Amino acid sequence: MTRKNKGKESKKDDSKRNTLILVCGLPGTGKSTVSKAIAERTKALLFNTDVVRKELFSRPAYTQEEKDLVYKMLFEMAEKFLKQSKNIVLDGTFYKEELRSRVKEIAQRNRSAFAIVEVVCSEKTAKRRLDERAKSESLSDADFCVYRKIREQFEPIREKHFVVDTGKNVGRQIAGFLKNF
After folding, report:
1. Structural contact between residues 31 and 21, judged by C-beta atoms closer than 8 angstroms
2. Tens of pLDDT, residues 114-147
3. Is the dihedral of CA 121, 125, 127, 130 positive or negative?
4. Strands, DSSP E only, in the chain?
5. pLDDT tens for residues 51-98?
6. What pTM does this model have?
7. CB 47 within 8 A of CB 56
8. Sheet strands side by side (includes 162-165)
9. Can you point out the beta strands (E) in 79-134?
10. 165 torsion bin: left (phi>0), alpha (psi -120 to 50), beta (else)
């Protein structure tokens, strides 16, 4: 890739650009598992909405104000560390197009490579995972009722993105994503 720099052409090495990868999807689909794997393979910092929420609120009520603050903090952390040339993976439902667009704007402002990974699985698998999660300690409070509510509110991803189906070989899918990213 070439770009103009004060009248001179210079080569920009895209392999040295930092990255911002947004991992999104419904509760119970395996977003955190996929996010961790991508973060490890890309040597990225991982920021998770559940972790941020629990840091901010010991007993979250999941009000709109709380959700707004959680995403605001996530965006601020991403911006801060992109400016330090770190790779970032963001893990959360990101069920609204506006939230995903804000992440893309952060990547563009910081001249970072950007990708969206949507994590999916069958409803039956998500329900089983959420039921199992309810029996153990978890950062996420989402249950199957929350899954259904977010499924109804989840706005379609209109731009090019990669889909990981956690009902299939996840490692192979992540390797394919990273190869083509």
Report:
1. no
2. 999 999 999 999 999 999 887 777 778 888 999 9
3. negative
4. 2-5, 8-11, 19-25, 45-48, 88-91, 113-120, 162-165
5. 999 999 988 988 999 999 999 999 999 999 999 999 999 999 999 999
6. 0.89
7. no
8. 45-48, 88-91, 19-25, 113-120, 162-165
9. 88-91, 113-120
10. beta
Token pair recorded at residue 96: 């609204």
Please report how the helices 144-153 and 123-134 are oriented relative to each other, as an axis angle in degrees rounded to 10: 140
Contact 57, 66 (CB under 8 A): yes
- Domain positions in the chain are 18-29+37-180
**How many whole angstroms from its chain centre is CA 33?**
11
Strand partners, 117: 23, 162
Would you state the pLDDT for residue 139? 77
| Structural tokens at position 2 | 């070439």
Which letter does DSSP use for residue 15 in this model? G
- CATH number of the domain located at residue range(s) 18-29+37-180 in this protein: 3.40.50.300
Q: How far is CA 134 from CA 35, 59, 67, 70, 130, in A?
A: 21, 16, 21, 22, 6
- Locate 97 and state its tokens: 């197009």
- Distance between CA atoms of residues 148 and 154, nearest Å: 10
Q: How many Cα atoms sit within 13 Å of 4 on the Cβ side?
A: 2
With tokens 């840091």, the residue in question is: 55
Q: Which helix (H) or strand (E) holds 153?
A: helix 144-153
